Amino acid sequence: MCTDQERIANDEYLTALYERAYGALASVVGIAHPDHTVEIGSGLGLASLSGHRWLHSDVTASPALAVQNTAERLPFQDASLDALILKDSWHHIPDIEGFLTEAHRALRIGGTIAVFDPYWGVVARCVYRFLHQERWDARTPSWSFASTSPWDSNQALTYMMLRRDLQRFNEVWGSRFTLTERSRHIGPSFLLSGGVSRRTPISGRFLRAMLSWEERRGSWFDHFRFFHVFSLVKR
Ligand SMILES: C[S@@+](CC[C@H](N)C(=O)[O-])C[C@H]1O[C@@H](n2cnc3c(N)ncnc32)[C@H](O)[C@@H]1O
Question: pTM for the full model?
Fold first, then answer.
């Protein structure tokens, strides 16, 4: 039987998706030392398929992990890390401010949190809300949510924190982190693909060509993109 890792590695589109996501995150953290760079919620450690050598951590056990821990409790010394990377895991963290407190403690000054997570464009919002298996709840006032499993999530979390409640975010976190919205990624090819968990039979080669076409569009195309990358740099 084929593992998830093999399924993704053998799919031209999903491989391209992972390469783009991790490539964008790597360019945000720049020259951070791999031994002082930790991916939070790294799952199967698929960043290594694209050659990234940072440390993997997750609350869910996997052979790829250097450490098993929750994002809200990081087993690293104060000011010891250059960077924290989160691909598709920010919106799974039930106490995101608990994570930010820990991240601020463990990062050195100038250290970076780089995040790839669901975006809030009009199309993305509708798809996440009505067609996606994970929850999109932009009405709740709270940034934290009840969780009984690592797969519980609120895909609207970055929308709430960085758009709906940006003023509150800056009041609470602005003195500790510099927030920069970096880039938006992956257009309708994502919808046609069904994503990682519901991959449709549409050819990976076709979807990969579509992804390349999407990447050549300008910022007007952000309305049709499904993910964004932002960074928080410790002051
Ligand atoms: C959608 S998966 C993403 C996995 C991987 N980054 C990828 O893109 O293939 C979300 C990951 O976040 C992890 N996760 C959920 N809650 C977490 C928490 N509180 N602390 C650390 N990791 C958590 C899950 O175990 C899961 O591996």
Answer: 0.97
